[in-house]
């Protein structure tokens, strides 16, 4: 199964090798910039130009949580390997780590001078890697909200 999102504001899951569309989700009001399966495979996260991050339940085929807090488009999203946290990177120059269980922002990472374009958790750690339009990469310890 593959996951995609795009300018049509939809995310889609695709079955292979046939390439059939298995599920489609709608709800964002602008382009979808990123999408990622939860490690358990039961949910997914999307990021969008509408400044939101959304959690989707595949069995319910709908959005179960909308995370708001970025002031500009969200460029990327990523699940932590434990499945309890989501990270987002935004054109507002910040990244956020969201606690899915409490449904709130746990940490805001500030330090890039321009848009943050990608974000990834290092597996089984509290370290996040971000890349920015300011031509830098940063490693962050989200427990201390500091660059490494």
From TrEMBL:
Q: Spell out the Pfam families in the cross-references.
A: WD40
Keywords, A to Z, come to:
Repeat, WD repeat
Q: Where are the WD repeats?
A: 25-66, 67-108, 109-148
Instruction: Give me the Gene Ontology terms describing cellular component.
Output: axonemal central apparatus
Which terms does the UniProt entry file under GO BP?
Answer: axoneme assembly
Q: Which PANTHER family match?
A: SPERM-ASSOCIATED ANTIGEN 16 PROTEIN, WD40 REPEAT PF20
The protein, known as: SPG16 protein
């Amino acid at each position: 199964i593959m996951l995609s999102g795009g300018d049509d504001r939809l995310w889609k899951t695709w079955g292979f090798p046939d390439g059939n569309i298995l599920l489609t989700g709608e709800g964002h009001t602008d382009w979808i910039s990123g999408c990622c399966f939860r490690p358990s495979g039961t949910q997914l996260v999307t990021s969008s130009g509408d400044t939101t991050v959304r959690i989707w339940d595949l069995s319910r085929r709908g959005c179960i949580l909308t995370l708001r807090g970025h002031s500009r488009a969200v460029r990327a999203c990523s699940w932590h390997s434990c499945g309890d946290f989501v990270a987002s990177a935004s054109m507002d120059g910040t990244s956020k780590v969201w606690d899915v269980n409490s449904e709130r922002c746990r940490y805001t990472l500030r330090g890039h001078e321009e848009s943050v374009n990608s974000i990834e958790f290092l597996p089984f750690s509290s370290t996040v890697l971000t890349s920015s339009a300011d031509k830098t990469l940063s490693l962050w310890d989200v427990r201390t909200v500091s660059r490494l």
